[in-house]
Here is the input.
Amino acid sequence: MKFVAVSSCPTGIAHTYMAAEALEQAALAAGHECVVETQGAAGSTPLDPAIIAAADGVIFAADLEVQDKGRFAGKPTVDVGVKKAVHDAPGVIAAAVEAVKAAPAGTAGSVAAAPAAPVRQVGTATRIRQYLMTGVSYMIPFVAAGGILIAVGFLLASVAWGKDGAIAVTAVVDGFDGGAFTSWISDGFSLGSLQSWAVLLFWIGKWAFSFLVPALSAYIAYAIADRPGIVPGFVGGFAAGLVGAGFLGGIATGFLAGFVALWISRWKVAKGVRGVMPVVVTPLLSVMVVGVATALVIGPPMKAVNDGLTSWLNGLGTSALVPLGIVLGLMMCFDLGGPVNKVAYVFATTGLANAATSSDKPAVIMAAVMAAGMVPPLAIALATVVRPRMFSEAERESGKSAWLLGASFISEGAIPFAAADPVRMIPSFMLGGAVTGGLSMAFGSGILAPHGGVWVSALANKPVLFLLALLVGMVVSAVALVLAKSIGRNPDESVLESVESVAALTGAR
Here is the structure.
């Protein structure tokens, strides 16, 4: 049979593509063909209409609303969450086969009418999380680009000015004053000056960061109301930043803008007014409501909460930061890119807006979160090298790719192993993540880059200690993993594994 599928996850980064690969491989193994359209962060290439027309059935492995769903009308359909496709792709393919068999004759491979696929029931809490994670997925590129450019600016400044570079680079010009900045470009910028490039890159990063809250707010609203939510969402997010409400205010304005725009766009109006509703009436009224509410209702309390959170973080000493690092490390390694992992990551990335240097508390928190998130794939990779006979040939091959995934801060690289043996894998990951998170905090290592893994470690204020915390946690997790997998194993297998391990470590294998 021939199937077409669409995969998407809230952040559109790892699960989207892992689900696509799993479905393609499972279909091939079962003697079928599956072509997948990935609606992820890297964009989407729509399936060829001819491929859709020739398909016997459709699979939606999506945690977000599938774009242009009407293309698949009339086809037998299976609708599951993206994690189901990652963890049980053969089961999803089997369900799709049964859906095709149960469809009326002539439905498969045609656009004839077919019974509507059962709609997957999504609870209110799940729906809210989907809205929030849609906003986060669109916000992350602003955070990544801005954070890395700011960190590069600081790095160049430390070379150009010496130890006071992090302070000097911020004092040259105010990048948010258009007149002052254009005057500096005309009179003060020099192509051959390292100081000039440090200042320029620093402010480009700050400009990107200034879109953080507006983008978060706008795309939460977009997830709720589609296009009508974007304008009030952007305005609400901008206003939240202006009044000091921070990312918490941006979340609030995003939900408000989305539901207000959705409500207005559903009004039943006369034919003569319909044409101006999406371009005038909906944006006008939704922007007015959201703007007034942000200034008078949302702004003041959210500013108080945001200021209190910032003061609390800045007031934390090392003795308090270490437990926080342990908790964040546990969260990062619990569900490997799932909701708990994302809560810890968003907590760290949104705090970066309040960090001026890599020594500030938000940057220290970011370093702990990033280092802990790299532990699971790297621990798996190390374990497959040290104790190869504990793993199948396929797992050992996956372990090789886990080196790159882990080093690049892609926690999802450990998902196949966690899905196969969650009882032993996940606690081992969490132990190593907790060690790394606590050590990173204790060392005071901070980084302004929100992503990049070991490839951006040079941007940390204490890169050696950052990598040391990662290394220790990786080893602890790998040891725990090997010990956990050794429980209840045949003694003869243990002897073979010991021989294989020595060979691996000496390079003789």
User: Anything to note?
Assistant: The longest strand covers residues 2-8. The two ends are 42 Å apart (CA to CA). The first helix runs from residue 15 to 29. Residues 110-117, 492-509 have pLDDT under 50 and may be disordered.
